[in-house]
Amino acid sequence: MTYTRVIFPQALTVTLIGMAWLNRLSADSSYLTAIALPMVLIGAGQGATLSPLTAAGIAGVAPDDAGAASGLVNVAHQLGGSLGLGILVTVFAAADAGTLDARHLLAHRVATSLTAGTALLALALVLVVALIVRVRETANVADDAGYDGRSAAHPRELSALDTLKRQWARNRKADHAGSAHSATQT
């Protein structure tokens, strides 16, 4: 899938560039070049990554499991946002520059927090390349033996997330079959 291998990492890179630019903020920075333009890059990058990533979280899930998968994706968004905010607030509180006046100290703390946010985005990009892009590229050179043409996705197009979703669906079916079997015996 072209989006996953090409556009998604590029859009995440645009977001990373915007954050790296934004973390250069100082007390004397101008609004246009230090805040507005980096925020445009961050917004464009997030728009190109978050919505399709959310849709990918439920893609390929059986219709009976779509509600549970959607709930899981939303929980992951909420937990990730809360954890990220907690980390950045901790970094903000810990950033101390000693003898700075209040205005410069605030700018220093904000810039330090934004630097930590940039590091988290860089980690996300590394994980995307390692766990999504490379898995798909590795799968593209895999042997086609065993593909019957009837399944929804070609085996070479499966990412690590797809593999986990399929395993979860198999376990769920096994649980349902086991509970139905035990219900008929009682």
Description:
The chain has helices at 2-22, 31-58, 66-94, 102-140, 160-185. The chain is mainly α and 186 residues long. It has one domain. Helix 1 (2-22) runs antiparallel to helix 2 and helix 1 runs antiparallel to helix 4.
Whole-number radius of gyration?
Answer: 22 Å
How many separate helices?
A: 5
What is the global morphology?
A: elongated
Oligomeric form = single chain
- The portion of residues assigned to helices is over 70%
**What is the typical, i.e. mean, pLDDT?**
80
The proportion of residues in beta strands is under 5%
SSE order: HHHHH
- Number of discrete domains: 1
* Straight-line distance between termini: 48 Å
Task: Count the beta strands.
Answer: 0
Largest sheet: none
Low-confidence stretches: 141-156
Structural class determined from secondary elements: mainly alpha
Q: How are the elements arranged and paired?
A:
Layout: H1 2-22, H2 31-58, H3 66-94, H4 102-140, H5 160-185
Helix pairs in contact: 1-2, 1-4, 3-4
